[in-house]
């Protein structure tokens, strides 16, 4: 019998110590695995109005899925490495869980391998490519099972088509936002994405230096009033509380989502992308400065002053 080791590129194993199964060997592997196998192929393609690195980051980021996609049940990452991750995903509203493996097997390509109830294997290959209009995403899948379950294949195939279409449209807001912020000088730790940094709930936004100082009068605000204060290329949510103010970022420091006054729930701001919650920073007259979103905030003579951050000697 042929060794399964031949399904890997030996040069790759030699070079990096690990390798994913070769694309051209996937069908053969499925046929050896499942007796009387039937394999159904499907494809979804769409333009991606974002940079390739944003498509890659977006695919690796698990935490947005239950919040951005209504089609998504709860999913738990059980393992993350730089190039791969393993998750358990709930099947719709059912008390059933599907194991899902994600692998970044080449610069612009992913495997996603899942198994439904031990009976049907789905291998998805996702590629992002540059074309004349920007980027394109091509998603190819193979649905494999014993032939007695072949009647399920067209149903699954249509579901995968629909899922890819809907989820891709829902993801556009996230990818676009990064492109938009980059034009203003923002950068992201996840500009070189891997499964580790894309799943870390850390402050991944690198704010550009604020070009000049801004002064925002708040004396005319009524007590308890909340406003969004946009200054230059960044923004804050500000609530007047007596002589002091409470401040939240209007640009989420995790991955740059826009936070609005409607995202405030009492004293907690909840980000719509990954669900991060922030309490306010409190700024009192002549207090501070407090540093937020890469700028310094002070409250002087009833005015909120937003100034470029000073680099202090360490
Ligand atoms: S952008 Fe991820 S929690 Fe806000
Ligand atoms: Fe998504």
Characteristics of this structure?
single chain; 314 residues; alpha+beta; Alpha-D-Glucose-1,6-Bisphosphate, Chain A, domain 4; Rieske Iron-sulfur Protein; 2 domains; seven-stranded antiparallel sheet; 20 strands; elongated; binds FE2/S2 (inorganic) cluster; binds fe (ii) ion
Task: Walk me through the structure.
This protein has six helices and 20 strands. It is an alpha+beta fold and 314 residues long. The mean pLDDT is 91. The site of fe (ii) ion (FE2) has 7 residues, from helix 4 and helix 5.
Summary of the model, kept short:
The chain has helices at residues 10-16, 26-33, 52-60, 65-68, 152-183, 195-199, and strands at 37-48, 75-80, 84-90, 97-106, 109-116, 120-131, 134-146, 187-188, 205-206, 214-217, 226-231, 234-241, 244-249, 264-265, 268-270, 277-278, 281-283, 290-292, 295-300, 303-308. With 314 residues, it is α+β, with helices and mostly antiparallel strands.
Topology:
Layout: H1 10-16, H2 26-33, E1 37-48, H3 52-60, H4 65-68, E2 75-80, E3 84-90, E4 97-106, E5 109-116, E6 120-131, E7 134-146, H5 152-183, E8 187-188, H6 195-199, E9 205-206, E10 214-217, E11 226-231, E12 234-241, E13 244-249, E14 264-265, E15 268-270, E16 277-278, E17 281-283, E18 290-292, E19 295-300, E20 303-308
Antiparallel strand pairs: 1-7, 2-3, 3-4, 4-5, 5-6, 6-7, 8-9, 10-20, 11-12, 12-13, 13-17, 14-15, 15-16, 18-19, 19-20
The structure holds FE2/S2 (inorganic) cluster and fe (ii) ion.
FE2/S2 (inorganic) cluster (FES) binds next to loops.
């Amino acid at each position: 019998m042929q060794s399964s080791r031949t399904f890997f590129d030996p040069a790759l194993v030699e070079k990096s110590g690990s390798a994913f199964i070769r694309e051209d060997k996937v069908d053969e592997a499925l046929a050896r695995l499942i007796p009387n196998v039937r394999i159904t192929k499907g494809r979804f393609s769409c333009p991606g109005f974002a940079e390739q690195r944003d498509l890659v980051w977006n695919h690796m980021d698990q935490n947005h899925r239950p919040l951005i996609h209504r089609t998504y049940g709860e999913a738990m990452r059980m393992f993350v490495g730089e190039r791969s991750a393993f998750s358990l995903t709930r099947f719709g509203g059912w008390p059933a869980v599907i194991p899902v493996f994600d692998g970044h097997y080449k610069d612009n390509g992913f495997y996603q391998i899942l198994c439904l109830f031990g009976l049907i294997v789905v291998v998805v290959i996702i590629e992002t490519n540059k074309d004349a209009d920007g980027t394109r995403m091509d998603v190819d899948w193979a649905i494999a099972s014993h032939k007695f379950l072949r009647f399920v294949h067209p149903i699954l195939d249509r579901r995968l088509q629909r899922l890819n279409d809907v989820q891709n449209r829902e993801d556009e807001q996230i990818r676009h936002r990064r492109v938009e912020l980059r034009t203003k000088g923002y950068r992201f730790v996840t500009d070189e994405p891997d499964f580790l940094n894309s799943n870390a709930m850390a402050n991944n936004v690198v704010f550009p230096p604020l070009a000049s100082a801004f002064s925002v009068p708040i004396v005319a605000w009524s007590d308890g009033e909340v406003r969004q204060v946009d200054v230059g290329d960044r923004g804050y949510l500000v609530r007047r509380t007596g002589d002091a103010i409470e401040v939240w970022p209007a640009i989420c420091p995790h991955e740059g989502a826009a936070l609005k006054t409607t995202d405030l729930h009492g004293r907690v701001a909840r980000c719509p992308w990954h669900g991060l919650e922030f309490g306010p920073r409190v700024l009192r007259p002549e207090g501070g400065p407090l540093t937020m979103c890469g700028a310094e905030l002070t409250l002087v003579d009833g005015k909120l002053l937003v100034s470029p951050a000073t680099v202090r000697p360490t």
